Structure to design on (936 residues):
């Protein structure tokens, strides 16, 4: 028992790589059978295959392991929970052993019945007496853990000499130099090419040409044979999806024969609906690679009108922002609410492969999606994508409205309605007004009333609760949807659409092959076989990046964009700058976002003639709500100010190296920045109490709608952002890594607050409290030098934790977030007469619940805002608990620790017993001056 106590006390090792070998594991030696010493380790049982692949990919001795012996306890067999009980025993042996078919080699008696063939067929090269093997045991005490006993880890024969690989001199010039089988990557390539219709001869011809270009074979994949490819082609040709006449039985048989492709399966029952989750090994790798610290999107309703069961696709975005399906869930429509089970199974599978995997955001396209389950399982932000509704509106507008001007007008009004709803300025009544105003377009209005008006209630609720995904995401989703239609719904016999086994088989074969080939770098070698199903290339967003600004001409209500294919043709885009524009190109007539619309949006936003995106507005509103709920202590405030100063110093060093050599009193500068942050937050609190109508927001600012002018953008990738900052930090500490806006700098070199001036929060901060100006008034004038310029209208912004008002209310018993906050006392002095007025903040100014969300696109502006009177406002708070600060402002891990004087912070607040009352003295010239509430 001491042996098993020692074994079970070992740590379970789970390397974070997709594949790992014995070199990546720390081995322990314990007493074994017959007083031998066993070399053992514990790993998750689900990662035994990863260990096999990593151990087979040994550079010094490439090989492959096969199952030499296996014993498995039937699940229904009763057993006692013994500490040394075994549920499963597997003996893996190197494929070059254990028999030795070389001359003079030893063959085990159990293999004495082997009859040699007329042709050796490489038999002497495959069995060379290698004694390398290991044992895997699945214990009753820990069913999720695999015990590996690896005593013979050298690839030698019984004489102790190398028997295969580069170290075996006798294997030179034979296949024993390489692994006995081709790699998984080459096997997938061959199968994918065969599934999409490429002939065996073409595959072998291209393969032989590539081997010749590299100067001959150098690994096992270079020895691919025509016989192997022909055998795979024959197997595909003879296979059938209909394993049984009964659809349910056929599905069950497929699941049993493809266990590695299924991450969740629930058969029909009286209480549970049918659900099948499909994910191949390649899809799992793509989910880990592109989904970690990034986004996963959901396409939940593909094939609703044609297929027996709709397909729910989970999608990640590659480096070109193209969609890659990483999982398919097949289930009836009524079971869409039962997603918690398969989401848990999927998360467990991914997390078993990579324990450090974490999602930054989950995008849904259904207002009835189970948001609570998504947050519970993936522990990330949830966004909503409106692409499906916009696609349907656009497609039916083109189909049901004859005049292009009428289509543009209806689309413009619908876009304005959605924008007002997302910004919280309208409800379902705005769509009722549209139906009354556009009653002349009877065909489209009848369609809208019958299909979409009954659903607008739940859509409005979702749009006002969840942040909206960006246009780049919408373009990628539309492109994926079109690929699925061409690759799946192309059967000549439509009756097969009513069989689920056909759907499962085609997803796992042809459709999977097309998406695998999309990521294959040498797919252009097979361009002669391209058909409509091979449709690939860039999304509309990426195509728009390649259109120069000179090809766009704005002409009032429409814009002209020169075609990239035909320079003599220009496409007309109505409603320029709107996400609901109308274009006359073929891709837009199908209801999609085309590159011409997106390019016009980019140009309009660059010149300031269109409103900023809804995603940007929601992000700024989240910042306002966060500032309206200040934390009880100053840690978060100090962290934000110190990070802003640190980023400014880094940017100044990049833009003007000479300015970085200027000596400033950093300690005093940062200390002034703390006071400046207090003033900014106070001004935000007062301005947020002023209720503005949605129609008046941003129209008074010079330089275009919303005060937006030529934009300067700083992508996060150019700022050495810490990847760990993309994840949600612990509640109560806002990690600001990765969120840096060039709104820190105004156009004239004057320092502004961190939130854009479009929100009417504050103007230029006074110099005496400026955290971005040195003590002697020195400023870096970089207004004429743009930091970084990109075409992207909405660069990525990472997910951040935002404290909800409820949490803030619990933390700040006497803070500003309390619903019982006292009145705001304003003292006005005019011509020597003093008047005091009590004003209560409007209920609408209270911070709304802040969704913990991720805005994956954001745009910044350097526009000049309207000159206003600067207002300084000091709101007395309860004493805060400041963390001890160092005397010198030294950078610690990229963050400056701010010096603070506890006496200054606490002396003033301790004299004010009523933190909810704010006193302002207003002189006759209109300038407001702060007046202490405690002074008489």
């Amino acid at each position: 028992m001491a042996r098993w106590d020692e074994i079970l006390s070992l740590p379970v090792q789970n390397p974070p790589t997709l594949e790992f070998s014995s070199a990546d594991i720390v081995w322990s030696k314990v007493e074994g059978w017959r007083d031998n010493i066993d070399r053992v380790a514990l790993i998750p049982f689900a990662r035994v295959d990863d260990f096999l692949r990593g151990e087979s990919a040994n550079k010094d001795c490439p090989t492959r392991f096969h199952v030499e012996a296996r014993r498995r306890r039937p699940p229904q067999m009763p057993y006692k929970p013994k500490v040394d009980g075994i549920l499963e025993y597997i003996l893996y042996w190197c494929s070059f052993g254990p028999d030795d078919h070389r001359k003079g080699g030893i063959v085990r008696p159990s293999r004495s019945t082997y009859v040699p063939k007329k042709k050796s067929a490489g038999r002497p090269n495959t069995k060379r007496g290698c004694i390398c093997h290991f044992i895997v045991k699945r214990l009753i005490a820990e069913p999720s853990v695999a015990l590996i006993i690896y005593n013979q880890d050298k690839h030698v024969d019984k004489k102790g000499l190398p028997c295969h690989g580069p170290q075996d001199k006798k294997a030179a010039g034979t296949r024993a130099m390489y692994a006995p089988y081709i790699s998984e990557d080459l096997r997938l390539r061959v199968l994918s090419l065969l599934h999409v219709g490429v002939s065996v001869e073409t595959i072998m011809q291209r393969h032989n040409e590539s081997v010749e270009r590299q100067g001959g074979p150098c690994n096992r994949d270079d020895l691919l044979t025509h016989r192997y490819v022909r055998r795979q082609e024959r197997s595909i040709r003879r296979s059938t999806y209909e394993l049984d006449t009964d659809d349910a039985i056929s599905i069950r048989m497929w699941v049993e024969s493809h266990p590695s492709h299924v991450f969740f399966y629930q058969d029909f029952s009286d209480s549970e609906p049918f659900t099948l989750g499909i994910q191949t090994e390649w899809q799992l790798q793509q989910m880990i690679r592109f989904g970690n610290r990034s986004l996963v999107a959901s396409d939940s309703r593909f094939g609703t009108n044609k297929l027996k069961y709709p397909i729910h696709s989970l999608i990640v975005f590659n480096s070109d922002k193209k969609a890659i399906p990483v999982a398919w869930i097949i289930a009836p429509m009524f079971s869409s609410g039962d997603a918690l089970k398969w989401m848990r199974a999927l998360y467990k599978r991914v997390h078993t492969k990579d324990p450090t995997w974490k999602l930054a955001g989950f995008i849904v396209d259904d207002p009835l999606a189970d948001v609570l389950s998504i947050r519970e399982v993936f522990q990330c932000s949830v966004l909503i994508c409106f692409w499906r509704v916009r696609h349907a509106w656009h497609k039916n507008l083109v189909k049901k409205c004859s005049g292009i001007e009428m289509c543009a007008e209806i689309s413009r009004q619908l876009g304005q309605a959605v924008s007002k709803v997302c910004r919280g300025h309208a409800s379902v009544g705005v769509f009722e007004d549209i139906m009354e105003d556009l009653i002349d377009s009877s065909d489209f209005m009848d369609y809208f009333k019958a299909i979409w008006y009954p659903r607008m209630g739940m859509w409005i609720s979702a749009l006002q609760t969840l942040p909206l995904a960006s246009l780049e995401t919408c373009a990628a989703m539309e492109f994926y949807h079109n690929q699925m239609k061409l690759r799946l719904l192309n059967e000549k016999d439509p009756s097969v659409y009513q069989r689920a086994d056909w759907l499962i088989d085609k997803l796992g074969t042809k459709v999977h092959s097309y998406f695998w080939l999309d990521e294959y770098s040498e797919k252009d070698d097979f361009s002669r076989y391209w058909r409509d199903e091979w449709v690939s290339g860039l999304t509309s967003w990426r195509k728009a990046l390649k259109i120069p600004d000179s090809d766009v001409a704005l002409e009032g209500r429409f814009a002209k964009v020169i075609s990239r294919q035909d320079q003599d043709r220009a496409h007309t885009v109505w409603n320029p700058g709107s996400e609901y524009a109308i274009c006359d190109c073929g891709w837009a007539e199908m209801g999609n976002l085309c590159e011409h619309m997106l390019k016009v949006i980019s140009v309009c936003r660059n010149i300031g003639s269109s409103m900023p995106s809804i995603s940007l507005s929601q992000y700024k509103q989240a910042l306002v709500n966060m500032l309206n709920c200040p934390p009880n202590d100053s840690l978060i405030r100090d962290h934000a100010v110190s990070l802003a100063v640190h980023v400014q110093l880094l940017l100044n060093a990049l833009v003007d190296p000479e300015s970085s050599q200027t000596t400033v009193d950093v300690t005093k500068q940062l200390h002034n920045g703390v006071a400046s942050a207090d003033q900014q937050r106070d001004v935000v609190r007062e301005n947020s109490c002023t209720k503005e109508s949605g129609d008046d927001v941003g129209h008074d600012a010079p330089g275009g709608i919303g005060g937006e002018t030529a934009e300067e953008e700083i992508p996060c990738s150019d700022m050495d952002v810490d990847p760990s900052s993309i994840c949600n930090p612990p509640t109560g500490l806002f990690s600001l890594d990765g969120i840096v806006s060039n709104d820190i700098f105004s156009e004239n070199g004057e320092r502004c607050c961190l939130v854009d001036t479009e929100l009417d929060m504050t103007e230029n901060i006074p110099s005496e409290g400026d955290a971005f100006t040195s003590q002697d008034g020195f400023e870096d004038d970089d207004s004429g030098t743009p930091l970084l310029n990109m075409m992207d209208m909405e660069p990525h912004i990472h997910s951040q934790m935002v404290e909800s008002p409820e949490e803030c209310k619990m933390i700040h018993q006497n803070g500003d977030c309390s619903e019982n906050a006292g009145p705001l006392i304003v003292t006005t002095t005019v011509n020597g007469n003093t008047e005091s007025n009590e004003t209560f903040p409007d209920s609408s100014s209270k911070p709304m619940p802040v969704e913990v969300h991720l805005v994956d696109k954001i745009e910044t502006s350097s526009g000049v805002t309207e000159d206003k009177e600067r207002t300084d406002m000091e709101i007395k708070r309860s004493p805060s608990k400041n963390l001890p600060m160092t005397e010198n402002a030294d950078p610690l891990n990229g963050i400056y620790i701010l010096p603070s004087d506890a006496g200054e912070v606490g002396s003033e607040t301790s004299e004010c017993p009523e933190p909810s009352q704010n006193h302002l003295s207003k002189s006759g010239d209109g300038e407001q001056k702060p007046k202490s509430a405690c002074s008489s």
Summary: The first strand starts at residue 28 and ends at 31. The chain has 25 helices and 23 strands. Residues 120-124, 659-681, 683-827, 838-936 have pLDDT under 50 and may be disordered. The radius of gyration is 33 Å.
